[in-house]
Amino acid sequence: MMNFWAEHFHRSHPEDPSLSLQETSERCRSDDTVQAKLVVENVSKVFVTKRGNTEALVGISLVVQPAEFVCLVGRSGSGKSTLLNLIAGLEKPGQGRVLADGKPVTGPGADRMMMFQEPALFPWLDVIGNVLFGLKLKSGLTRTERREVAEFYLRSVGLEKFVHSNIHELSGGMKQRVALARALAPNPKVLLMDEPFAALDALTREQFYDDIQRIWREYKKTIVLVTHNVREAACLGERVLVFSKHPGRIAHEFIVGLQRPRDINSVAVANYATVITRALKGALDPELRGKPLGADEVAALTA
Amino acid sequence: MKRLLFASLLFLAILLLWQSVVSIGVWSPVLLPSPESVLRYLYTSITDGTLLEASLVTMRRLLLGYCIGLVLGLPVGLLTARFEICEDTIGVIALGLQTLPSVCWIPLALLWFGQTENAMLFVVIMGSVWSMAIATDNGVRHVPPIYLRAARTMGSRGLHTWFAVVLPASLPFLVTGMKQSWAFAWRSLMAAEIYVTVLTGFGLGQLLHFGRELNSMEQVIGVMIVIVLIGLSTDKILFSPWEQFLHHRWGTAKTG
Fold first, then answer.
1. For the domain that residue B218 is a member of, what is the CATH number?
2. Are A143 and A291 part of one and the same domain?
3. pTM for this predicted structure
């Protein structure tokens, strides 16, 4: 049933990548001409405050391929959330530019949905009303289609029994699930997540790690996730980018080549997390900066 | 059921106390009429239709003025919340005029409109519009910015954001504003009816006024009871549904 709707929905949105995830990533590796999903080009952002100027980001460049899962880790204030807001179009870069599908980002767009640390659900709407909010802003769908799509994604996050619940009746984890369904419903190609699991308890969070990996694979989304949880980044990301503070820039890049689905408690994830934590503390050899660090380097550094 | 029993017991006790004070006879019956005479007044004035007519006249003035007040107050509040220039101008005026007791509008209303329905209407509008504007302004300012960010990422813009996010998000404040506005409108109208005799219709305030002129204390108390009852029931009829909705959806504290 679920697959039927997924196929139906994806068929009705011909712009969707029709390639499977495996094919997509292989094509990306073998052929650089495949258009990147997101391009951040030499972006800087300065916040002007009364107490002076803060350089949130300096000269950040980043390319995210279609259906890639990228995690940004860093201490608070390292500008990782700012970068996410720039990609979302909620803020404008001071210098440089951000491209989505090769087109400059001028503002928020339904092709890039965002999830926040708070669920940010609308309390005046019930669960399905919240999921329908974004769908109603998408043209070309009838009332029935919108409902079907909303119900499909609510099923997909396991909330089919809570379609007409009120927001205040849900637990923190369920609220964040609604927020996920709401972000998925308009079928964006890119999901931007700003510490979406930070306010959840450990068990709920672990359940989310499984679900988000499944959703990423099933719907072939491009995901950029900001977190300060190093293990989370190692568990979820194909690539993990470590931000340094003052000024915010990308200090290290990790390629996490572990098999899916990954378990947050596995030793392999823990090994990556150990090295990434060291990178965060600035304790890695500066010569490793700018070099993508993979399984071999991580093995050598944890030996 | 238990609550109802307690409430009835309380009212019974008040009645008994009242009756016993009257029976002792410390105050002249002109100053403190017996519950029975008040009931008799209520009975005759209900049966001869004066009370009903007065209530209708009052409610018509009230509803008309109140609705105009809301319709004017809401956009004023939206404007003051949205534009700094409106905040610095209309906003300050609204804040100032809200503190002005609405009775103070009566002399001006009389001079401008004479002893007419329009004078009444003017006083009621002036009583309700400013608190509605201020409540709206307040509500809009209290909309969590994260709602707006979430709405923007979903593609909501401009007027859509105002109607689909800002207004519903400030609903708890709007309902409070509507209640407050109602209370102010009700007070202004009573003041206006007591002070201004308009020949196009005698309202409850005028009935109260005549009661005093005729030294008819049972009429004064009887009309006061009717005013309280109308106030209570409109509160239930007009605002209970909104508050129930808020309680149901938002999970706000249960009232009523």
1. 1.10.3720.10
2. no
3. 0.82
